[in-house]
């Protein structure tokens, strides 16, 4: 089934107006369209009709005013690292590329916050912070734009300690459907002054407004940071170590599970020589004494559950190498099957159910023919499968869909979520009614209708059709 | 100026229907109405036309269906501890008292969460958790209901470490204007599955829906907890100690400032013998070693800035006595002027501006005749004035309004907020356009209109009139 919808050609008057406004930064060139009509997912590309390279909030506002007058869809685009088809132009329309909005507007060292444009990436921000003693902790692996990370409510390896984009965005500048500009939140650490507009836009995937600027919370770089790797006899022992660590309230900064197949892929890709067994990657942040104490507590738990000795990486370069290997796991897995695309799953369950969720998933994995790697941010109860498929092979796609369905159904039965951090896009929309109930999704539709009555903003994403919003 | 609006008598058909549904739990008795038409603030009481004592989500839903059919206002009520007139029946209507919804539905020890009905108070929850090794950290002082705390986005002394209700509510059950029941969020630690409905209702003060059940995040009780008091030669030295502590990233659990007048009131009320000087109250949570380390770091900072020696309270009873004295500060201050009411302010500013904000506020205090105590959750940049007034004395009320205006204007000029934790109610509504800009408040109006088109839910709260939503 194709998700592409019938589309009208762009009105000539709109084309003329956009050419006048944006000159060469308005493009209908084939390669530009192709580059903006796909993301990192298995979803088939769907090209926009034009791309605008915006350089300021006012330009995005002008684009929205023009597009809204013609009821033409607008899709925000950062670096295209999304994995659920968020940027695909299902209904055609205009892609607004924000990657040129790369200004770091302000760093307030004394208040531990920074104001950045939406196209700034997390690595760019952290490079700019290098001499400040501060860092921005959210790390989804890819060097995504901060606007995109806010729009998908991203998280990643550090979330177990520092939270997700939800907790780390203090305020936003957002362009609404009609081109008006709204500033949400502020620089105070907390506020009870009215509805939480900031959180309304975080995770809204460009369907309620276009985020053009963010005020982000920063963290002091800890006095000490130390990383370690520990292999386990089986996945269950590794997961039980995670569960106990979380239940004891040990403030680990990162605690990541990689299964044996992922380790094999990582070794091949990153030239590492790690044991090809279920493995936990840890990181500890704090004072020197606190890091030592946390590490000792976790080692005690791991040892009791059969974990091998910890291999430590304390020097910055070693730590970086280790986390680079972890971050490259997704691409390393892709190389297990040359030419394959990854069909990613992203469930998150209450921590008490994690061992059971992963054990049952492994039973499912044993029943299919395609290679599937399992890894994830297990401290939050969040794990991914990288299901390697040839999208042209219907048997493989059927297997991938079957296992995705199984994993999601199981997570929902455990009061978990179909997506911990990737977002909904087009890939997860059909699970939302089961996850939240029809009344909640009808309420989300009411919000969408109130903010974007013409459905110009990234139409067809997140929300299942209103006629599907019934409890079965 | 009175805020009371013209009101229509309750339709007879509605009265009959509610009597049938709720029997004796539907009341129009004078004392019941009087009790439900006021809160802890200076705002003059405004009585509802009837009170319904609800005992379940389904009962609240039935009440909303009936009231909505007659377009009659409904105001949610917990224990009436709000301080901005949140529960006043400006337009009359029905007060729904949720204090009978006191069931602790579930405590999930292994997942560090609990499900409670909206009428459960924070002390009730913590008493029920006594043997679990867990606690619920949000502590606004008053023994408020958890539903009310979510509705006002409350926080308090522990927020500097554990966050506010925004970070500690995982999910909600909410009755919408038309009586439909929505469940938001879930029990996974994080999710990117659609719009953040949970955060939409947290802080909405009963104007978008009525919270009837909450899933709350719990924390493991720390291995060690230790509290201390330290007096300073002046307020500025105390505030600078706070700023450095936060900027160094020391994870204090509580850090509270009380000025000399507050200390005098506390000593009189709580029979303590603390120095009547600007004072910080601290609490440290963690392992024994971590607590010692944090305490040492903070003592070093304090000493350098002229802080006296720390007086320690390590035993549980001593700690409790100390925090009881802190919590009673509000009532202690009221007794400074018998018969007075408190006109509370609640600004929150970026931490770098806190010293300046407090110094300028003290200059304002020196210019008025009424007694004013200053204390607050300074680790978040949040502080209160307790302005003691006789509401019948126009000179005193004018002074109180003048100082409130000054304090809020200054906070807004510093990119802070007019209310850090009390909420807007009727008291702060007129500051919202200045704080957020007209576009943001118009967007809040659009949300209100979408969710409550008849304006039945706590009408007249939070939002200034739409005609005032213009940038000056």
TrEMBL record, chains A, B:
GO terms for biological process: lactate catabolic process. Its cofactor is FAD. InterPro entries: FAD-bd_oxidored_4_C, FAD-bd_PCMH, FAD-bd_PCMH-like_sf, FAD-bd_PCMH_sub2, FAD-linked_Oxase-like_C, Oxid_FAD_bind_N, Vanillyl_alc_oxidase_C-sub2. It comes from the Bacteria. Residues 44-221 form the FAD-binding PCMH-type domain. The keyword Nucleus does not apply. Pfam families: FAD-oxidase_C, FAD_binding_4. SUPFAM superfamilies: FAD-binding/transporter-associated domain-like, FAD-linked oxidases, C-terminal domain. Its EC number is 1.1.2.4. GO terms for molecular function: D-lactate dehydrogenase (cytochrome) activity; D-lactate dehydrogenase (NAD+) activity; FAD binding. Keywords: FAD, Flavoprotein, Oxidoreductase, Transit peptide. Belongs to the FAD-binding oxidoreductase/transferase type 4 family. This is D-lactate dehydrogenase (cytochrome). It comes from Rhodocyclus tenuis.
């Amino acid at each position: 089934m194709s998700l592409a919808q019938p589309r009208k050609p762009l009105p000539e008057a709109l084309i003329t107006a956009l050419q006048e406004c944006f000159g060469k930064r308005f493009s209908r060139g084939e390669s530009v369209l192709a580059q903006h009509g796909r993301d990192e997912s298995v979803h088939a590309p769907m090209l926009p009709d034009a791309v605008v390279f915006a350089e300021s909030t006012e330009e995005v506002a002008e684009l929205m005013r023009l597009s809204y007058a013609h009821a033409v869809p607008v899709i925000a685009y950062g670096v295209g690292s999304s994995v659920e088809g968020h940027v695909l132009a299902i209904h055609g329309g205009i892609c607004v590329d924000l990657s040129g909005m790369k200004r770091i507007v302000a760093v307030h060292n004394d208040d531990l916050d920074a104001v950045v444009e939406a196209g700034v990436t997390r690595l760019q921000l952290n490079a700019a912070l290098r001499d400040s003693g501060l860092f921005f902790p959210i790390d989804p692996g890819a060097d995504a734009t901060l606007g995109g990370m806010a729009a998908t409510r991203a998280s990643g390896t550090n979330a177990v300690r520092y939270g997700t984009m939800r907790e780390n965005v203090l305020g936003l500048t957002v362009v609404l459907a009609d081109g008006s500009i709204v500033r949400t939140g502020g620089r105070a650490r907390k506020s009870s002054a009215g509805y939480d507009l900031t959180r309304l836009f975080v995770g809204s995937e460009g369907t309620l407004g276009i985020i053009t600027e963010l005020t982000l919370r920063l963290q002091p770089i800890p006095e000490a940071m130390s990383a370690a790797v520990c292999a386990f006899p089986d996945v269950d022992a590794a997961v039980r170590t995670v569960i106990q660590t979380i239940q004891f309230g040990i403030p680990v900064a990162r605690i990541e599970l990689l299964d044996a197949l992922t380790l094999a892929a990582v070794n091949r890709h990153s030239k590492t020589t790690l044991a090809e067994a279920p493995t936990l990657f840890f990181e500890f942040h704090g004072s020197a004494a606190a890091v030592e104490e946390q590490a000792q507590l976790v080692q005690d738990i791991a040892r009791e559950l059969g974990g091998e000795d910890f291999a430590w990486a304390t020097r910055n370069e070693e730590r970086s190498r280790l986390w680079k290997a972890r971050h490259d796991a997704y691409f390393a897995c892709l190389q297990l099957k040359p030419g394959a695309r990854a069909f990613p799953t992203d469930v998150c369950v209450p921590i008490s159910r994690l061992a059971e969720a992963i054990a049952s998933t492994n039973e499912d994995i044993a029943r299919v023919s395609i290679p599937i790697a399992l890894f994830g941010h297990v401290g939050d109860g969040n794990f991914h499968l990288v299901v390697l498929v040839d999208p042209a092979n219907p048997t493989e796609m059927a297997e991938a869909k079957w296992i995705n369905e199984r994993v999601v159904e199981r997570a929902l039965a455990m009061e978990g979520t179909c997506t911990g951090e990737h977002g909904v896009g087009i890939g997860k929309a059909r699970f939302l009614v089961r996850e939240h109930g029809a009344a909640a999704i009808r309420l989300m539709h009411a919000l969408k209708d109130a903010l974007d009555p013409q459905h110009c903003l990234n139409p067809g994403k997140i929300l299942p059709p209103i006629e599907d919003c019934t409890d079965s």
